[in-house]
Amino acid sequence: MSDRRKRVIFHIDVNSAFLSWTAVKLIAQGYEDIRLVPSVVAGDPSDRRSIVTAASMPAKKLGIRTAQPVTMAMRICPKLKIVRGDWDWYRRCSEAFIGICRSYSPVLEQFSIDECFIDMSLRLYRKDPVEVASRLKDEIRESLGFSVNVGIGPNKLLAKMASDFEKPDKVHTLWEEEIPHKMWPLDVGDLLWVGKKTRERLREYGILTIGDLAHAEMRMLERICGHKSALMMHLNANGADDSPVETERQEAKSISAERTFPRDICSIGELDRALFKVACVVAHRLRKGDFRASVVSMFVKYKDFSVASKQCRTSRPTDITAEILNEARRMLGEVWDGETPVRQVGLGVSGLTHEELEMSLFEDPRTDYYREWDRQYDAKMEGNEDPRLKAYSHDGGKQDSRGEE
Q1: pLDDT band at residue 365 under the 50/70/90 scheme
Q2: In terms of CB atoms within 10 Å, which end of the chain has fewer, N or C?
Q3: Is the distance from CB of 388 to CB of 321 less than 8 angstroms?
């Protein structure tokens, strides 16, 4: 095995997970395979105000996407098949999927309900990584009835990028020498952690592809997004990533809070106030644990229990409520149509670190005010509990949070 392959990481991603898992269940009950026809998963198939949470490949080819209202999807395809999601079943499928992956390597990091990384560096002596990945892929399909993509690379970034190549049921590699012809021609927005807003800003400067980003001058990138984000994107565009496959949670890996409304709401003002309250709780827990977060996520749950979610990477690790809230507000406009009634809203942070906040030439001049506001909020929080807010941390276990009206 050559030096470049001393570290071998697999990223395994279930193809159209919720729809595939629903299809497996329906096939066992004698129904057709919904993966082969235009179909979607939604919370309540009888309610046309439901939101699409997963779509089949035939549906995607017609232009149907997740987070679309079912009414819009039905206008695109009047004969669209709509089925109800089953979260208990999804958890069982996920556990079975992770179990097979773990049998190939105990060094496993679950990235989400339908994807994981495994470090195969010590498991491939005199073995071809592609052959082993193909065997893993086929075992999951034959044992569990759904397909996965496997990406192979020398680090987590390149393995995940590889798994997003052509789907479904494929194995792809992305070694360092393959970066110029496999990764650099891709749109700059395809690079992990480059969000829609950052993509638009980069394109304004003529950075259209990942290759353009890899060869861009750092001075220009710093003008666009600041030193730390520029350095991270430049390294990633060149395939650099030294993050380990983390198998144990030694301390908190994420913190989140949610609020369920006594009645469904569709007022932007009410929703924004609720988002503000959960942001206060999350940021307070960050500061209490002496953490800063580099990833913000948020979700809205609708009356049919379907969920629309989004996440982004911050320009620097932060524990400032206003910075976290502003990211969540921006993403709200991407996951909510402004009309559909909302039952629950939630916000979370991850990518936690104990490093100090980094000063920046581009820092918001109001930052000192934000920090003082946070200090006063933290002081008031002692002893004031709002039972309507639930917070989660460490391994996802529920804990009562604190908040105020």
Answers
A1: low
A2: C
A3: no
DSSP code of residue 358:
P
pTM higher than 0.70: no
CB neighbour list of residue 164: distance below 8 Å, 6 or more residues apart: 13, 149, 151, 190
Annotated active-site residue in 95, 109, 115, 217: 115
**Which of the pair, 360 or 305, is modelled with greater confidence?**
305
Give Cα 211 distance to the centre of its chain: 24
Sign of the Cα pseudo-torsion (396, 310, 157, 112, in order): positive
pLDDT surpassing 60 at residue 4: no
Instruction: Give me the helices (H) in 336-404, please.
Output: 367-381
Amino acid present at 2 = S
Average pLDDT, the chain: 85
Backbone angles phi, psi at 108, to 5 degrees: -125, 140
CA angle 88, 94, 95 (to 5 degrees): 95
Whether residue 115 lies in the annotated active site: yes
Tell me how many degrees the CA angle 88-144-174 measures, rounded to the nearest 5: 105
